[in-house]
Amino acid sequence: MRPVRYNVAASLDGYIAGPDGEFDWIPQDAEVDFGTIFGNVDTVLLGRRSWELVRDMGSGPWKPGTRVYVFSRTLGSIDDPTVTVVADDVTAVVAALRAEPGDGEIWLFGGGTLFRSLLLAGQVDRVEVTVVPILLGGGVPLFPPGPGRVRLHLRDTRRYPTGMVTLCYSTLTREEL
Q1: Is 67 helix (H, G, I), strand (E, B) or coil?
Q2: Do the bridges between strand 15-17 and strand 126-132 make them parallel or antiparallel, or are there none, so unpaired?
Q3: Which of 18, 89, 98, 131 is the most exposed place for a label (fewest CB within 10 A)?
Q4: Domain residue spans in the chain?
């Protein structure tokens, strides 16, 4: 089964975007190894708002040729052969992607609502949160409120010169709880 990994930056007070959706508070750190982050990723999952952010930037941070799935009930088609818009059941589509042959990782780029849906459905294997030492005071929450608890197991931490810290967790199955 191909793994799904959620990798996100968050403020110390738990926001992934500022009050106006801005990301200018996330510092660029030369020691963050994006080659490792994207190394084995061959599929990217995004919600509509995350897709619009990527579109407005001109492209995503992943390597060319990566398959991109945008989950939205309101977005029409996208004029890009590497992008598939999906309005169907997100958990069924992701389960099918995970069952495909191969060892490429599936990267959940965002957003929080898509992450929560997949996490509660048992479709996320790793959660990697890079905590940025800033207090935003409001914005888009790291984890949208909702029902359900999911236990995580800390696998690794990384500290960067900018003061950022990455916390790498794996999800626990019901048998491991």
Answers
A1: strand
A2: unpaired
A3: 89
A4: 4-17+29-176
Output the DSSP codes for 127-153.
EEEEEES---SSSEESS---S----EE
pLDDT tens across 36-82, in order?
667 788 899 998 888 887 777 776 767 778 899 999 988 887 888 88
Quick one: what percent of the chain has pLDDT higher than 90?
Answer: 43
| CATH 3.40.430.10 is held by the domain 4-17+29-176 | yes
Q: Distance (Å, rounded) from C-alpha 40 to C-alpha 21?
A: 29
Tokens of 40: 């084995």
Question: Is there a contact between 4 and 118 (Cβ–Cβ < 8 Å)?
Answer: yes
**pTM of the full structure:** 0.85
Q: How large is the C-alpha radius of gyration of the chain?
A: 16
pLDDT at residue 37, as a whole number: 67
Please give the single-letter amino acid code of residue 155: R
Residue 159 CA: distances (Å) to CA of 28, 163, 165: 14, 7, 5
Sheet holding 105-110, edge to edge: 83-86, 67-71, 41-47, 105-110, 4-11, 126-132, 165-171, 152-159
